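Hi team,

As requested, here is the filled-out complex form for the protoporphyrin IX containing FE run. I kept the field names the same as last time so the parser does not choke. Let me know if anything looks off before we queue the next batch.

— J.
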Amino acid sequence: MENLKQNLLESANQKLKEILENARNLVGLSENDFRVLADRKEILLSWTDELAEDFYQTLLSYPKTAKVFETVPVEKVKEKFKAWYRNLISGGGGEGFYRQQFFIGLVHIYRRIDNNVMIFMANNLKRNFLKKLFEHFEPDEAVYVFQAFSKLVDFVIALTVEGYIFTLYQALTDVAGLRPALVERMMKLKLEEIYNLFKREFLHPTG
Ligand code: HEM
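And here is what came back:
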């Protein structure tokens, strides 16, 4: 059991490092992105309530996403969301921030919120943020600030998506009591089978 826990934590740390490295190399995520936001925190923080209201209004007005709030009080979640936004704008990043984002991803996985819903809602938030930027800044600065915000929000969503796969994979290995190398081999064979089936019958359905 201790061994399993240790492996799980090590794999999670490894995954986090890997995603961070990808974000640094592919979109240039850096500590500067936090500075760009923090330098303008007075105005960006003044949008907290409005952005949160809009976010949860969208989720509550669609029955499929409203359902999750039958068991979790929306006001409680909204407060957590506002704390997250404040921390993103003025927290300054760092190791603790990255760990917290990975955990936030897992919270949504645990609540079975689909990845596509997370992606669409991140897009919803980014568009509202961009609209406000253009209302308050000159276009060049608006785009500059948006790029920093967009990178950081995408980073959180990337953690959620990867965390989903990570958690399912760990759960599968654990529940079935299989060795990771064996799961890897079985997956490879199954994926090949699925790939061939889709190539033949999904791209060009006959029925
Ligand atoms: C950009 C996308 C999103 C962000 C940044 C976000 C942010 C957060 C944060 C910071 C928390 C608190 C996590 C913690 O306990 O430490 C949270 C919890 C939660 N979120 Fe989200 N969220 C997003 C999308 C969604 C969506 C799309 C839904 C519903 C369809 C949702 C429903 C919830 C629920 C139900 C909780 C509470 C879970 C619990 O306490 O067990 N979130 N979210």
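Two things worth flagging: The radius of gyration is 20 Å. The chain has a mean pLDDT of 91.

Thanks,
J.
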